[in-house]
Amino acid sequence: MLKNLIYSASVILIIIISYKVYLSFHESDFKNRNYENIKMINSGEEAGVFSFAVEGSIENSIDVFQNEIIQNINSHKDIAFNISTGDAVLDGSEDKYRILNTALKGLNVPSVIGIGNSEISDGGARLFYKHFGPYYFSFVYGGSYFIFIDTTGTTAFDLQESWLSDELIKADDYSHIFVIMDKSPLKQDAIKNKDFRTFLVDKFSEHKVTGVFTNGNAFEENIEKGVTYYSSGGAGGLMLNASATGDYHYLKVDVTPGGAVVKPVDILTVSKNPFIKMIEGIWIYIHSVFYAQFVNLSLGIFAVWLIFLIMYRKVSKDVNYYRDFNRTHKSIDLNRKLNIAMFTNNYLPFVGGVPVSVNRLATALRKKGNRVVIFAPYYPGADDSNDDVVRCKLLRYKKTDKFSFAIANIYSKQISKEFDKYDFDVIHVHHPFWMGKKGLKLGIKKNIPVILTYHTRLEMYAQNMPIFKLTFKNILSHGMIKKFAQKCDGIIAPTESAKEYLENIGVSREKLVMPTGVDSEYYENIDECTIKSIKKTYAPNGEMLLCSVSRLSSEKNIRFLINGLKYIKENTPLKFKCIIIGDGPDRGDLQSLIDEYSLKDYVLLIGTVNQNEIPRYYLASDLFVFSSQSETQGMVLLEAMSGKCPVVCVRSSGTDDMVRNGFNGYKTSPDITEWAEKVMYLIENREILEKMSMNAFKYSKEFTLDKMAENVSMFYKKLISVHENETRENENV
């Protein structure tokens, strides 16, 4: 029942939001309405005797303006057009302008709308210009000159002063001059600029303006320096003060060659009792507000209702964070060979940490007799003849000089068809989105346990987002990992620090800490001549050879590395070379930085090297240097140690667990000087370097592929057993 209510509230919210989108984009638009209506006014037969209507503070009124004033104006056949002095809308949002436009369609005569404070609120000035036109303007009709002034501050007052002076000179040739403006220059609190107020009053008097119409709360008539000022604000807005007769009204202006007569036309009579009058005014205003804001009010009500239902569901649901100590488990056969499905967003031949990790784990598990099928994107030229790899059709593949990526079509039926060919025991996903989400969905549908390996610190890739970079970095990335991980049966964290992070963001699933192992086969049987050849190629004069392996992109912090090497060059007489293996979108910029620092004889970007050949470069190098802080595990650190390279790196989540200071290398703070000094210390003290080299080699032997496969296989079986027991218990409930 509660779930149905939540679904219903969600559907209603979606409908309301869709309706607002429809209003903004698909309902017939209107532009330059004042210009069109002035053309319509001038297209009629002009006469020296005519009438027009003036009202202020419509504020999207239904009871007063739409139901009463419009009908009354339509009944006066002598009224040629209608004028609003301002505040015709409740606020400046798009839907209020559209409601006003719909109401004005009920008039039999054209309307000209002046700008007021309500029109510019909520960023509405732009919409007023779009829908009605300029903020200040003039037109001529029947021997009379009409001037509209912007008193909201949207247009600079000094700009209008020059324009108004010219307009009034032109207007002197006409029988009558009428000025329309939102705020009265007679009220100090209305227009705060004293000089502008004085300018207006003096100019109106100098040019003998027939009448000035302003916005207000009630009808008022004042004479200042021979000019009559009329205030009208009873067209529907909140009216707590009495008008002259205590009624809502508009002004009817009858123009003859001899002058103009202005009369308030009372529309809706309210009680003479001040208190009752105030209550009635508030009620009429509330009714109009409710109509104008109906969609927004509904949206707010159902949003609050949905939040309440979700919160109620959470607080009313019994939870027990302790395991059931009385539950009996049916154990799984530990010798059982498993059918394993792996889902990954990228895979070989794409070069990256995740593809390498997936390939090594799959290879090691297969050697133990398990069947592993990898679901991965299709890459041109991929050779999977010796592996169980399902290459998924692509939504998009893009390859440039700087980068390449393939996006699998997770909506293709091909994936499910291939998946159904196997009787999988467990699903292992390597990303918390896209292909990972597809794997999780299949696991839930087929009732198969799902394990996630947390490979990537998503927050470190926030700079690649087109918008909301900080939101993604500080909120969305962590929330995405937590939400996905909590739906899985277990998590593999490559390091203790990665496990600690998962616990800090609230991931409570079963966890295994298991770094990606090193394939020692690629380090064996490499002849000494190959190693010497690499050494001679890159350090022909016996220089110390440093090595780094990384994707050349901003999150890998290669600029830090280059700045550190610049410091070393400037502060040690010892000759060295540093080769950086890898490619990526920042290669051109990094090469420019190397050239700028005059390091082209010291730092070499040698590009992509076949994964199986990289061990040769480790064995040829004296020291491995690393600066990335975006790793979840230091996979390349272990690989370098297997090649007898100590490591100098920047301390981070992926390196802190792998490097023991003073034993197999050094880890420093992200300070260029500190990092560079450690590198200099090792290359200047060969005995210490050689000792650390042997320590690094011995340490790497703790992380073999065989040990990794054994631990992961046992983790799979434990989670399969738990999953099967929970399924059995649920069936018996």
From TrEMBL:
<feature type="transmembrane region" description="Helical">
    <location>
        <begin position="282"/>
        <end position="312"/>
    </location>
</feature>
<feature type="domain" description="Glycosyltransferase subfamily 4-like N-terminal">
    <location>
        <begin position="351"/>
        <end position="521"/>
    </location>
</feature>
<dbReference type="InterPro" id="IPR001296">
    <property type="entry name" value="Glyco_trans_1"/>
</dbReference>
<dbReference type="InterPro" id="IPR028098">
    <property type="entry name" value="Glyco_trans_4-like_N"/>
</dbReference>
<feature type="domain" description="Glycosyl transferase family 1">
    <location>
        <begin position="534"/>
        <end position="698"/>
    </location>
</feature>
<dbReference type="Pfam" id="PF00534">
    <property type="entry name" value="Glycos_transf_1"/>
</dbReference>
<keyword id="KW-1133">Transmembrane helix</keyword>
<dbReference type="InterPro" id="IPR050194">
    <property type="entry name" value="Glycosyltransferase_grp1"/>
</dbReference>
<dbReference type="InterPro" id="IPR029052">
    <property type="entry name" value="Metallo-depent_PP-like"/>
</dbReference>
<protein>
    <submittedName>
        <fullName>Glycosyltransferase involved in cell wall bisynthesis</fullName>
    </submittedName>
</protein>
<keyword id="KW-0812">Transmembrane</keyword>
<keyword id="KW-0472">Membrane</keyword>
<dbReference type="GO" id="GO:0016757">
    <property type="term" value="F:glycosyltransferase activity"/>
</dbReference>
<feature type="transmembrane region" description="Helical">
    <location>
        <begin position="6"/>
        <end position="25"/>
    </location>
</feature>
<dbReference type="Pfam" id="PF13439">
    <property type="entry name" value="Glyco_transf_4"/>
</dbReference>
<keyword id="KW-0808">Transferase</keyword>
